[in-house]
Amino acid sequence: MTDNLILRDWRNAYPAPAKLNLFLRVAGRRPDGYHRLQTVFRFIDRNDRLFFSPRKDSGIVLLNPLPGVPAESDLITRAARLLQTETGCRKGVEIRVEKILPMGGGLGGGSSDAATVLVALNKLWQLGLSRERLREIGLKLGADVPVFIFGRNAFAEGIGEILSAVEAPPAWYVVLEPPVQASTAIVFGAPELRRDAPLIRATEWKSALWQNDLETAAVSRYPIIGDYLRWLSGYGQALMTGSGACVFAAFENEAAAKDVVEALPAGMRGWAAKGLDSHPLCDLI
């Protein structure tokens, strides 16, 4: 029975969902160059999917590398190799990714993929690591990785790794994808970026909704983000997620969100997604 269960797990598709930043405040810069942030991460039901196959050796192979992403920069293979290093595991894996989320969109796609690799291989390789240990490993890959392992919508502080679970209200979102990849380094490095937002308590997060301190800098460098924000603002309060480039607005129900998607001008890409209460793999750890 155990062998059949393991085989069935290997055949599963493991989702890597997108996140939205319901607000994002920049509260300073640390001596190491990272920024002090406060934000709320909200998972939504649009995701990449990852598939895993065991190998007889310890090799880590991504069967369909992402175009334009050097192997040494790819978070999927980096996550698998880091998990081997941190645990001494010598098992190997072949990975295939069904990529849906855009790169450079502020939806956390790369970080979410890396987190799903860690969570799935912890299960498939039977490592038995705790959620806390996986979050520690994930932080070495990037500041957004731990929240996807945390598994709940969260108020985040520090560089994004200090997490407190929050209950986000039911909502549907319209997300638009401007045809540009926003550079996180360029946006955070903007000289005009204000870095003095006053800190708030986790219990006060709703008072900060619909504010993204990175938006002005991103729009000045990628004006098309502003075009998309203005169009979406005709239907509801619109906000950029993360450091861009995607923008979103919240709606009460699926029908209202899909009506907006139906009204998209020709050439403008967007979609509707439901807000989630937790990560689809939350119970796998």
SSE diagram, text form:
Layout: H1 2-10, E1 14-29, E2 35-55, E3 60-62, H2 75-87, E4 92-98, H3 109-124, H4 131-139, H5 145-150, E5 154-157, E6 162-165, E7 172-176, H6 184-188, H7 215-221, H8 223-232, E8 238-240, E9 247-251, H9 254-262, E10 270-274
Parallel strand pairs: 3-4
Antiparallel strand pairs: 1-2, 2-4, 2-5, 5-6, 7-9, 7-10, 8-9
Helix pairs in contact: 2-3, 7-8
Q: How would you concisely characterize the structure shown here?
A:
It contains nine helices and ten strands. The protein is of the alpha+beta class.
- Uncertain spans: 1-6
Shape: globular
CATH architectural group: 2-Layer Sandwich
Structural class: alpha+beta
* CA-atom Rg in angstroms: 19 Å
What is the domain tally? 1
> What is the helical fraction, as a range of percent?
25-40%
* Name of the CATH class: Alpha Beta
Sketch the topology as an H/E string, one letter per element. HEEEHEHHHEEEHHHEEHE
Largest sheet: 6 strands, mixed
How many beta-strand runs?
10
Terminal CA distance: 20 Å
Total number of helices: 9
- Proportion of residues in extended strands: 25-35%
Mean pLDDT: 94
Q: Within the CATH hierarchy, at the fold level, what is the topology? A: Ribosomal Protein S5, domain 2
Walk me through what this model shows.
- It is a single chain.
- With 285 residues, this protein is of the alpha+beta class.
- It has a single domain (2-284), classed as Ribosomal Protein S5, domain 2 (2-Layer Sandwich), CATH 3.30.230.
- It has nine helices and ten strands.
- Strands 1, 2, 3, 4, 5 and 6 form a six-stranded mixed beta sheet that branches. A four-stranded antiparallel beta sheet has the order 8-9-7-10, covered by helices on one side.
- Helix 2 packs parallel to helix 3 (109-124) and helix 7 crosses helix 8 (223-232).
- The protein is globular, with a radius of gyration of 19 Å.
